[in-house]
Structure formats: structure tokens, C-alpha cells
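Hi U.,

Before I forget, here's the chain from the pilot set. I'm dumping it here mostly so it's searchable later in email.
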Amino acid sequence: MERNKSFLGILLIGLGGILLSANLLGFRFEMIATHWPLLLILLGLFFEGTYLTGKKAPGILVPGGILLVIGFLFEFEMLTHWRFSEYTWPIYLLAVAFGLLQLYLASERPRGLLVPIAILSSIAIIAYLSFIYNALAVTVNLGLIVPLILIVSGILIILRR
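Structure:
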């Protein structure tokens, strides 16, 4: 119990010291509010570096990969004021797939990891394909394009004989 109190006290002193020195040096806290995803990226890099320096415990690559991808996604979202978030949600699935893929490549390559990697990646790819299809359906009359593609394909088949 004493140890927990000491740790909490040291943590509060350290945090207070950082905030006081930042205030005295003129640091603007709006930067933290805007670029907080950099903390996720740094934590992800820490996990990645921990594995790369020791080559032990490849499981640390899963949270490292997830935090890296999510950190970059959140940084993008913060910089664009979340304007594209309706289109970037499949990246959450890809972040988990990326972390698992790193584990797969760094370990004995257990085949069981390929199943969740494939499922998550497939869902994300299908979502992006539906985004592309919807964008095309709005800009191009698919009721004309599909029959034209069929007619041209039929003509090419006949001419190749």
C-alpha cells in the first residue's frame, strides 16, 4: 500500500512539474488537444522498438501495430476535422489485421492467425469497394454502363473466333 502511495505521489509531482515548466516556457496546450494522436504513435513505436531490440515476445507487436495505425488515422482525422470519418472506419479493422499480421510474420507463423487477418481485411476491402461503387453510381449511370460492357464483351468474343 505504501508503495502505491509513493508511486502516485511521484507521478503527481512529475505531472505537476511538467505542467508548470510548460506553462513557464510558454507551451500552448492547444497543440496537445490537436496532436494527441502523436502519443498513440509514440506508444506504438515504443512497442515496436521493444520487440525489434530484443526479438522476444512477438505478441507486443499486436498492440504496437494497432496503436501505430490508429494513431496515424486519428492524426489524419484531427488535421481534417473528422471530415472523412465516414470513409475511414474500415481502417479500424485494418489496424487489428496489421497487428495480427506482424505477429504472424514475427512468430512461428501459426496458420490460425491468417483466419482473423483475412476476415478483417476482407470486410475492410468490401467496405471500400462499396464506397467506390456508391461513388460511381452517383456520378455514372450504371444502367447504361453494364449493358454496354456486356455488348462489347459479346462482340469481342464473336470477333476472336
